[in-house]
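Is this the right way to post structure tokens for a design question? Let me know if I should format differently. Anyway, here goes:
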């Protein structure tokens, strides 16, 4: 283990096997870790819609405290009700624990979980993938048959349902003081996630001081005999009824004395926290989780590590003192490094750490990985590159994928990439080869301290997995957004940026707010406009009566530009005719057609006996028949009969009315004819349908 503590601004810890880094962690003075810290906080707002509270704990943003993460001791309810609630929960939890214990030691534990998992559950804490490895995860069955697992889950659901009789707005109030612990770091615009269920991590144990029915053995300890031995040791610790304790994976080969010493250390730490809490006023930091050097010795160090080299006198003393406290017999492995050559440079670790800032990772065979973190997921693409050692495409794909699986597992640990990860393996024809790659991927992830869920390779060659976040990633903690590309990685070309500048100038000139326009753009865009588009600039000046000044700004890149307006408004502005659509609203058209049809009905009732007028009347009668259904056709026939019986006077009046309408049609012109044509077309379609029915 190599610990670089020369610079107070940054501390780095790496575990090197040969000349290859297997584990890496670092801490910056600018962004110290919050996760694990305990604060005395004050409720600032209760949000019923989220069933959560926002809490001021002294951080940059208010923390988020879900209702399920609030211990019943903080409920503002009568004491009798609170005691009854806790008693019912304890009864359900005891029954659940007994049911799990009957079957928990016979069968091995399946899957990958965090170091400090328990086969018992932490009350009402549905922990997501980002919960620290030092806190017990959400309950999960430790084995046994499906029927007993289902019974245990039923008991747990009943216990969880006990709290649903309350709403957060009824039992938690504004300005209420709570003792909370950070379980998820602040990220982006999101505040830290908090819980009132505290957990204190030691070397071999995790103490849960306010969890009455939590505790057990880490899920990664799967041997039945080992689990039984550790449970016997735990039962002899005589835990108070108000506490729970979990044995970590590191305690597998530890004796009762070592585990008892670690538990006593955590118990003293809890006493100190209680005393500090009573003296503090919210918001205040009550207990800060160990710094990086202590966390590395507590969580990463194991018996397989030959020595711990520390560069920096202060860091060496801190590491030695903490090792003496946790494992006195291992103090001799902590050594100070004082050579003139930097520690990481001597062991060849510096170049490997520098490569973590690049998206491309080279493989020994000639292939390579491309790692791209995005907002939704981390995508990893595998390419064969220059790999030509194999004799066939299938064998090349298999060997490259197997090598990539090992490197991906390593990069996930080094960069601490968390959340959803999608891996695009090289396509393989054989299903057997696909299964080999899946098996190799799971085996490579077995030693990861994070909780991981791995899917299967899909028909598209994609493997989906999720990984727990243990710490802030290297890129996130030590980089910032690029001011030139704004985090996209792309900058617009000079021609694209120059044309965009011209459009901005013309748009601003058309507004007429000032006669002096100043364009501030990148050097490339400014030179493109001045050298390639000078004539267009002159046209804009002449058309709108403005003066344009183009200035290069070295702080701008790509299409980042601005137009400043000054001076009096231009003497003249070109006028623009508004664009008016010639379409008439459908409602108006329908109303116009209804009026015209009524006029035709009246005209036919006053029809004459003249043959030409009869033909016109028959033509209109046909249009009416095409307009409607069977009833409308019958009405048209009746109107036609009535028209034939009309006298000469009515015919004369009809002729005069028709002449007046034809004169109006001639004056109206195109619009009337266009509407008639539209109606006529629709009627011809309907007439065709009616004719086919009649036939």
């Amino acid at each position: 283990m190599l610990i670089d503590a020369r610079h107070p601004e940054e501390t780095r810890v790496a575990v090197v096997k040969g000349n290859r880094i297997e584990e890496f962690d670092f801490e910056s003075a600018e962004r110290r870790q919050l996760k694990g810290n305990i604060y005395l906080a004050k409720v600032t707002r209760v949000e019923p819609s989220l069933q959560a509270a926002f809490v001021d704990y002294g951080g940059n943003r208010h923390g988020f405290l879900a209702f399920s993460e609030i211990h019943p001791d903080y409920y503002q309810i009568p004491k009798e009700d609170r005691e009854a609630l806790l008693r019912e929960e304890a009864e359900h939890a005891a029954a659940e624990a007994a049911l799990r214990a009957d079957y928990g030691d016979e069968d091995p534990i399946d899957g990958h979980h965090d170091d400090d998992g328990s086969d018992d559950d932490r009350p009402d804490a549905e922990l997501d993938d980002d919960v620290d490895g030092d806190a017990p995860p959400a309950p999960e069955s430790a084995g046994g048959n499906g029927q007993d697992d289902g019974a245990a889950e039923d008991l747990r659901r009943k216990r969880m349902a006990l709290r649903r009789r309350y709403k957060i707005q009824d039992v938690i109030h504004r300005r209420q003081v709570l003792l909370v612990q950070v379980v998820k770091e602040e990220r982006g615009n999101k505040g830290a996630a908090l819980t009132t269920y505290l957990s204190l991590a030691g070397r071999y144990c995790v103490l849960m001081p306010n969890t009455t029915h939590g505790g057990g053995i880490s899920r990664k300890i799967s041997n039945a005999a080992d689990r039984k031995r550790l449970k016997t040791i735990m039962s002899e610790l005589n835990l108070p009824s108000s506490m729970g304790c979990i044995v970590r994976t590191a305690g597998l080969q530890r004796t009762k004395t070592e585990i008892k010493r670690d538990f006593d250390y955590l118990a003293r730490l809890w006493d100190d926290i209680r005393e500090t809490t009573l003296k503090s006023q919210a918001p205040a930091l009550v207990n800060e989780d160990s710094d990086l050097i202590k966390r590395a010795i507590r969580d990463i160090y194991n018996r397989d590590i030959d020595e711990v080299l520390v560069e920096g006198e202060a860091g060496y003393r801190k590491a030695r003192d903490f090792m003496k406290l946790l494992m006195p017999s291992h103090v001799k492995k902590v050594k100070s490094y004082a050579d003139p050559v930097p520690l990481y440079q001597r062991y060849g670790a510096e170049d490997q750490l520098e490569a973590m800032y690049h998206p491309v990772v080279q493989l020994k065979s000639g292939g390579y990985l491309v790692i791209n973190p995005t907002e939704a997921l981390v995508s990893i693409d595998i390419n064969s590159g220059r790999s030509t050692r194999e004799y066939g495409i299938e064998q090349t794909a298999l060997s490259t994928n197997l090598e990539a699986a090992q490197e991906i597992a390593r990069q996930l640990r080094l960069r601490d990439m968390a959340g959803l990860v999608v891996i695009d393996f090289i396509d393989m024809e054989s299903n057997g080869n696909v299964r080999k790659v899946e098996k190799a991927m799971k085996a490579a992830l077995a030693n990861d301290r994070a909780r991981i869920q791995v899917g299967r390779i899909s028909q598209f060659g994609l493997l989906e997995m999720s990984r727990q976040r243990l710490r802030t990633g290297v890129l996130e903690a030590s980089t910032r957004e690029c001011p030139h590309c704004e985090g996209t990685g792309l900058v617009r070309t000079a021609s694209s940026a120059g044309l965009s500048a011209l459009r901005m100038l013309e748009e601003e000139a058309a507004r007429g707010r000032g006669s002096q326009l100043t364009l501030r753009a990148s050097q490339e865009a400014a030179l493109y406009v001045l050298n390639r588009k000078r004539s267009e600039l002159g046209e804009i000046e002449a058309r709108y009566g403005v003066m344009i000044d183009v200035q290069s700004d070295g702080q701008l890149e790509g299409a980042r530009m601005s137009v400043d307006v000054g001076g009096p408004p231009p003497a003249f502005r070109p006028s623009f005719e508004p664009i008016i659509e010639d379409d008439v609203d459908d409602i108006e058209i329908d109303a116009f057609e209804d009026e015209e049809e009524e006029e035709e009905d009246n005209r036919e009732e006053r029809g004459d006996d003249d043959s030409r007028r009869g033909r016109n009347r028959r033509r209109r009668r046909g249009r009416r028949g095409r307009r409607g259904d069977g009833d409308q056709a019958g009405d048209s026939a009746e109107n036609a009969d009535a028209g034939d019986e009309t006298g000469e006077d009515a015919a004369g009046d009809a002729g005069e009315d028709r002449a007046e309408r034809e004169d109006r049609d001639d004056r109206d012109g195109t619009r009337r004819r266009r509407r008639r044509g539209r109606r006529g077309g629709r009627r011809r379609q309907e007439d065709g349908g009616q004719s086919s029915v009649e036939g």
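Format looks fine. Someone answered above. Worth noting: The chain has four domains: 34-288, 358-478, 494-566, 586-694. The longest helix spans residues 79-104.
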